[in-house]
Amino acid sequence: MTSYLITGANRGLGLALVANLSSQPNSLVFAAARKSSPELKKLVDDADGRIAPVDVEVTKPVSIAAAVEVVQKHLGDRGLDILINNAGMSSFSAGGTPAMEDLGDVLDVNVVSVQRMTKAFLPLLRQGSEKKVVNMQVTSPIYMPDLTDRSHSTSTLGSIAMAPFFSFAPAPAYKISKAALNMLTVQYAQDLGKEGFIFLPISPGYLKTDMSGPGADLTAEVGAQAVVEIVVKADRNSNGKFQNIHVQGWENVDSVNKYDGKSPPW
Question: From the CA atom positions of the chain, what is the Rg in Å?
Fold first, then answer.
């Protein structure tokens, strides 16, 4: 049985990942979120024990410690196979970088909380058979109604190489946090790769969720399926490599959003 823990599991991509992975044979999914949702509750009720809801606030170490105890008790003498750090927050600053006032909060949720979760669950992950940690490079797609002609996957907003292209997007704190998450992922990949760990920064695409607006490219279900395909196929050669999802028909579209399965520029 393969066990997964997904943060931000109550809506959007997180919820779609819970639905997808719980439908896989021999799977156990820990759906972690600050609070549940009607959609998540329905999934749990229909899953015949394959989904275990876990209350966690990723910015609070005490809450994370309690979540570790819940997961550990459920697993018994087994380890946790795969951790998917999906929880996060978006941010806007109409006045640009000098006017941003929430950099600390955004870094805490999008970067420091990933460190908190990974560190706390590391003992269970070391006992697991897969030893995979997925850091989603987009959890709250940025949607600006006045910029729908320049829609984009926010995962690449953390790319220094692509920063000039995305200079129009008034989200400096979010961009900074995603660039920092890239480096955090690489540092873990370097430190723990020798133990057999595989750290995966994945761009799941610009998805049609409550926060992304109607102009997004893909449904959350399509994005989740593409992410799962990457996670399942990942081996040690994938460790620390930024990966874009692959969606048939989106490989060569006339848009910045190409879902070709290649590594986006960092």
Answer: 17
Per-residue tokens: 154: 């926010």
What is the rounded average pLDDT of the residues 119-147?
A: 78
Residue 99 CB partners (closer than 8 Å, separation 6+): 93
Give the CA distances from residue 140 to residues 66, 89, 205, 251, in Å, rounded to whole numbers and listed in that order.
Answer: 25, 6, 11, 23
Distance of CA 27 to the CA centre of its chain: 19
Distance CA 14, CA 22 (A): 12
Mean pLDDT over each residue of the chain, to the nearest integer: 89
pLDDT, tens only, 25-57: 999 999 999 999 999 999 999 999 999 999 999
pLDDT score of 165: 75
Nearest to 224 by CA among 19, 51, 11: 19
Residues 250, 58: Cα–Cα separation, whole Å: 34
- pLDDT score recorded for residue 56: 98
Cβ proximity of 47 and 27 under 8 Å: no
Prediction pTM value: 0.92
Confidence at residue 147, expressed as pLDDT on a 0 to 100 scale: 39
DSSP string, 105-134: HHHIIIIIHHHHHHHHHHHHHHHSSS-EEE
C-alpha 80/C-alpha 226 separation (Å) is 22
Residue 162's identity, in one-letter code, is M
CA–CA gap between residue 27 and residue 168 (Å, rounded):
42
107-122 mean pLDDT: 98
Per-residue tokens: 23 = 């439908």
- Say if CB 83 and CB 54 are below 8 A apart: no
Angle, CA 166 vertex, CA 12 and CA 85 arms, to 5°: 35
Tell me which residues are annotated as active site: 140, 174, 178
